[in-house]
Amino acid sequence: MKARPTDQKQSTQSDTAKQRLESSRPMKSIEAVLALLENQVFCDEALRLKKKIVEFVASSPLDDQRDEFVSQLTTIFIEKWGVSPPQAGALVDPDPARPYAEAVMSGRWGVVPIFGWTNEQEIRTAIRNIRRIVRKQHQDAENARRAQLARWLEDCGFSRPDIAAAVWGRRGGLRRPSKEQAFDRLPEHVERKWVREYLARGHTSGKVERLVNKRARGSEAPASAAVRMSEHRYEQEVEQLNIALASPVAAEPVSAALTRLYRADERDHAEIGRGLVELRRALVPSTIS
């Protein structure tokens, strides 16, 4: 399997289509929208739409031509399904092989050659060196899916607290704390410090009270902040992955050579030859051969 650049931040839904969605359709429940991902017809149509847009954009159309094309396709989709198409292809075309292919294509993997004379210390050192480039991942796949769902559900008009409850299973922190709740949790010395800071800036006592109140309560519900930060981290990861896909990193020589071979067009015999030479040099140092 060959990996392709992962989903970009930009939406496949135009502003015009989004406005039409918000103004004309009755709001589905968030559960009903999520259930669409279990509908194979919906997934197939969303995937076809995404592929058509990708192919059209690859032809380098003018901006207004691209926007018109996207608007036409997404409008038809929205009128049929009542929701915008998911941005992330992984939501409608889950492929267990995708993470492996993206890791190999981007160079974010490593190989430790073990020979009969390789000792444990050499193995541990090699792994540490690889880990400097290839960081450990724990729940990254689950977090990425949640962020993808959040972006799509926001496009569908749902609020972040609703998304936090449906996708993350949050039951608390869905609303900003009341003034009383916020000040019950706020240490008195912190409140006094904030008051002194605002007074020192020349604010009136009334303005100081409003500023402290706003700061104590926060600008958004904790659940909303968690969703926003999850989306932000996901977008950063997508950006970093796309940079690595365009210019692979090298964790060590053997995996770097194999990445070069994996990325090579099977008809490009010269590039395959260069990759094989690179692999031989990585496995058998020239001083030995």
Question: What's the SSE blueprint?
Answer:
Elements: H1 15-24, H2 30-35, H3 40-58, H4 63-81, H5 89-92, H6 98-106, H7 120-131, H8 140-155, H9 160-167, H10 179-185, H11 188-200, H12 205-217, H13 222-246, H14 253-263, H15 269-283
Average pLDDT rating: 86
Q: In terms of structural class, how would the helical and strand content be classed?
A: mainly alpha
Number of helices: 15
End-to-end distance, in Å?
Answer: 33 Å
Question: Per DSSP, what share of the residues sits in E-state strands of 2 or more residues?
Answer: under 5%
Provide key terms for this protein.
289 residues; 0% strand; mainly alpha; single chain
In words, what does this structure look like?
The structure is a single chain. About 2% of the residues have low confidence. The radius of gyration is 26 Å and the shape is extended. It is mainly α and 289 residues long. Helix content is 65%, strand content 0%. It has a domain of 39 residues.
Quick recap:
The chain has 289 residues and is an all-alpha fold. The protein has 15 helices and no strands. About 2% of the residues have low confidence.
